[in-house]
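Quarterly update from the structural biology core.
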Amino acid sequence: MLKGKVAVVTGGTRGIGFAIVKKYLENGAKVVLWGSRQETVDTALAKLKEENSAWEVTGMAPKLTDAKAVEEAVEAVKAQYGRIDILVNNAGISQSTPLYQYTPEDFDKVMDLNVKALFYAILPTAKIMKEQGGGCIINTSSMVSISGQPAGVGYPTSKFAVNGMTISLARELAPDNIRVNAVAPGVTKTDMVAALPEQMVAAISAKIPLGRPGEPEDVANAFVYLASDMASYVTGEILSVDGAARA
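Predicted structure, tokenized:
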């Protein structure tokens, strides 16, 4: 579904991001995964190469909250492959700190990575996509961007911002044939959920109409669809992948 396309995936070393990278490779894309540290990038690349040595995948570790570092990384990808067809902004952090314990620094940290870093990656990449005749940008949102959450106000605030950025840029960039969408995952079996006690996972699952947390692959499938030509007329969408938990 993605044969010959060049994709950049931030936060691609584990969890949902790693699943996206793997699905993209399985579907024929060339992928540059970005991680927070070179060590984690190298580990992820080794796992992927062990599974399929023919996959064309490389990695980088730019500081996503540094606009210049991100721009240089984007230019490096273009220099290597000549184009960027897909940008996945998946890197992010969550918090559940109660308001009365929150600090301005806590709030800034969430907004810097979950919102500003997306802008820093989109700006230089969109310019490249415009020059080449189009492209696809997919942002990772969250079910809390729809429902909110009972504590940790910075995280849902940041994801509401992601939705607003997604919808607005979809309208602005449509004339340049650049589609912009977001995926809003629900509770997903990442390392954090896997570490929870079995009874706690069961309690969480009971509140999900489909009766189970999502697998990273469930979410990654949505990213494959939105990046593919099957979604050529889909832009400005926030696609929920949460087992109807938001209801």
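The mean pLDDT is 94.
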